[in-house]
Amino acid sequence: MSETKQVSDLALVGAGYWGKNLARNFNDLGALHTICDSNPEILETYQEGYESVSKVSDYDWVLSQSEISKVAIAAPAALHYRLAMAALSAGKDVYVEKPICLDRDEAVRLKDFASEQGRILMVGHLLHYHPCIAALKQLIRDGSLGKLHYITSNRLNLGKFRREENALWSFAPHDISVILALAGNALPVEIACHGGNCLSDHVADTTLTALKFAGGLKAHVYVSWLNPFKEQKLTVVGSDGMVVFDDTKPWPEKLMLFERYLTWEQGHIPTPNRKGARAIEVEIKEPLSEECAHFLECCQKRTKPLTDAEEGLRVLEVLQSAQNSLDADSGKVALNRPAEQRSAKQEVDVHSSAMVDEGARIGKETRVWHFTHVCGKAVIGAHCSLGQNVFVGNKVSIGNRVKIQNNVSVYDNVTIEDDVFCGPSMVFTNVYNPRSAVSRKSEYRDTLVKKGATLGANCTIVCGVTIGENAFVGAGAVVNKDVPDFALVVGVPARQVGWMSAYGEQLDLPLEGSGEAVCPHTQDKYLLTDGALSRMPSTNSTDQSS
């Protein structure tokens, strides 16, 4: 939050079961001006600590007050659309508890109207503001889990029993919201929901929802208010690690990371590694206080909320599709948005098993093959090819016409310029002296691969080096120092054994001193002067490499 003194200009609408928690937090933050509830008995419970807060039953009065610029809505979900639209129409910024409303078309109208009016519209998806979820997202961004395989979420308890909405709509929105975020803000392509009505007709007390995403990621959300014990657990399984967030545990044990949970014997037999988990240290903060403060800050700075109306709309679309599946006795439902709302990722050729996180920038006619994962902050140029099982980190820049063959991981702090070839199973590192027990993420070193370079199969590029233009690294070499332009290096550690033309032919030149050679394919002339090679393109050359 900004250090600017908070003005009491927020009205809370709905002050009962959950509203009392919002009242406490907004009051503690100095923002609460009015509490509005249709039940006078509820208003009577707000005494000590709320002496300066107005208590009213008339919502129209709230909307008419110019000193109230923000409205937080914690009323029953069936009232969300009417109350939120009225507040936006009155020029108020709006926080609305989950779900944003109960109908997709109404959610679209709320989102569009808020945008037209320049108003903040935020949805109360609380888990996004939990420090453990923030830390979990960072683990995924850092590549600690590798490619995500599946996510499971259990939210179970005995009570509170409801008659106006089922367990899916009451319990699942928070978990669905987080799962969509972990999936790169992508919508699932298929949803199936099973449920059971035990206590009353037409109200499911327990539901199990299965989500299938385009990149192969799958998720299951199990919710019930008819369970003998409380459980709030989210498990994320990736190719390189697993993490468990258990919100019922003491704070030091809430987020546990299982690293390298399996090994491959004989190259193809998976064997479990049952070593203990590592606790992820997370600062203790109350999620609801963080969420309320975020809303106030967004209103003050006029910035987009983390859980804005667009995010609320995505969650609602999943909820409605799950309900349709539940109504159809667990039939599968395909979830597709109109063409104008589809991701720009469809402009490139992305295989259905690949996972491209929301926000990744990929140039036209780039092809992303099977089981590849591109993180959300990666930048990839046009006309590239990313082979099978490639990983591209967040802090990675890849130029145009780059070919990355199968089983290559391009980790953070690697820059690859245009026309580079990365051979199968070659390796980039970003930590010089890794130790499992020592965190060295602050010690990442930058690696630069210049235009036209070739990195042979199974070679290793130790972090912190520069591979020169049109350099050629032989298969299996380990490069631990800079490679000059046009140099041919081989061995462990890599040593220079010659010079290569831009076309890819070895030149008859000494390693040091001076000399001159001509590429037989392009007729380009290469001049060696004091150990540095330069190229003089032939007037007939069609090769545009530098």
How would you sum up this structure in a few lines?
With 546 residues, the protein is α/β, with parallel strands linked by helices. It has nine helices and 43 strands.
Topology, pairings included?
Layout: E1 10-13, H1 19-28, E2 32-36, H2 40-44, E3 54-56, H3 59-64, E4 70-73, H4 80-89, E5 93-97, H5 104-117, E6 121-124, H6 131-141, E7 148-158, H7 167-182, E8 190-196, E9 206-212, E10 218-224, E11 226-238, E12 241-246, E13 255-259, E14 262-265, E15 269-272, E16 278-279, H8 287-301, H9 309-327, E17 333-334, E18 349-350, E19 355-356, E20 361-362, E21 367-368, E22 373-374, E23 379-380, E24 385-386, E25 391-392, E26 396-398, E27 403-404, E28 409-410, E29 414-416, E30 421-422, E31 427-428, E32 447-449, E33 454-455, E34 460-461, E35 466-467, E36 472-473, E37 478-479, E38 487-490, E39 495-500, E40 506-507, E41 515-518, E42 525-529, E43 532-536
Parallel strand pairs: 1-2, 1-4, 2-3, 4-5, 5-6, 7-10, 18-21, 19-22, 20-23, 21-24, 22-25, 23-26, 24-27, 25-28, 26-29, 27-30, 29-32, 30-33, 31-34, 32-35, 33-36, 34-37, 36-38
Antiparallel strand pairs: 7-11, 8-9, 8-17, 9-10, 11-12, 12-13, 13-16, 14-15, 38-39, 39-40, 41-42, 42-43
Helix pairs in contact: 1-8, 4-5, 5-9, 7-9
Features:
Dihydrodipicolinate Reductase, domain 2, disordered C terminus, 9 helices, alpha/beta, 43 strands, 546 residues, Rossmann fold
Structure write-up:
The chain has 546 residues and is α/β, with parallel strands linked by helices. The protein folds into 3 domains: 10-126 and 288-305, Rossmann fold; 129-282 and 318-334, Dihydrodipicolinate Reductase, domain 2, CATH 3.30.360; 340-504, Hexapeptide repeat proteins (UDP N-Acetylglucosamine Acyltransferase, domain 1), CATH 2.160.10. 19% of the residues lie in helices and 30% in strands. The chain contains 9 helices and 43 strands. The strands form 8 sheets. It has a 10-stranded mixed β-sheet, with no helix packed on it. α5 (104-117) packs antiparallel against α9 (309-327) and α7 (167-182) crosses α9.
